[in-house]
Specification:
The complex is a heterodimer of chains A (114) and B (111). Chain A is 0% helix and 50% strand. Chain A is an all-beta fold and 114 residues long. In chain B, 0% of the residues lie in helices and 52% in strands. In chain B, a hairpin with a 3-residue loop joins strand 4 (31-38) and strand 5 (42-49). Classes of the chains: A mainly beta (114), B mainly beta (111).
Amino acid sequence: GDSVTQTEGQVALSEEDFLTIHCNYSASGYPALFWYVQYPGEGPQFLFRASRDKEKGSSRGFEATYDKGTTSFHLRKASVQESDSAVYYCALGDWGTNTGKLTFGDGTVLTVKP
Amino acid sequence: EAAVTQSPRNKVAVTGGKVTLSCNQTNNHNNMYWYRQDTGHGLRLIHYSYGAGSTEKGDIPDGYKASRPSQENFSLILELATPSQTSVYFCASGELGLEQYFGPGTRLTVL
């Protein structure tokens, strides 16, 4: 079945550091890829998506590029702020099955120190 | 603005009791989903629905039922709650091929 692997379980940075969270996927079809962010006590919020190879998604200074060759969709931000502290989830949607369901990675806890 | 609400926000239940978690969406989306979130497992799909009257099994449906009486409402039912079902439950709505919008979650504790 489909799966998403986030390499980092936890990331600790200082403000203005560069962020990379690695996401690799395995899917039988040609999935859409998503990043979600979850703040304490809230549900996951859609950050952005990419639907085809080499497409870049971006929002709020975060970005990721769909790479079909390496089956990756790594999240990056040039300069993190304390307010970016949250849990980040990579997800894939395999629309070929027509279920509309998303398969999520285990999440990465980002802590940014002032 | 798109909105998904869940009730209750917190629930304590006894083992063997019946629990119903409710979800309402004002997005007019056809698809609705129930996930559970546990440390180390991310979000896992329990049941989903394509529209009023339909329910489908997700990846971990055992011990759960779902009901979609209308476009706006989608319930998750635990007929005989067990401690292993202690978790945070999220409802979401969306359209096929697009992002999903999540509710604020229900924290369920089964004693």
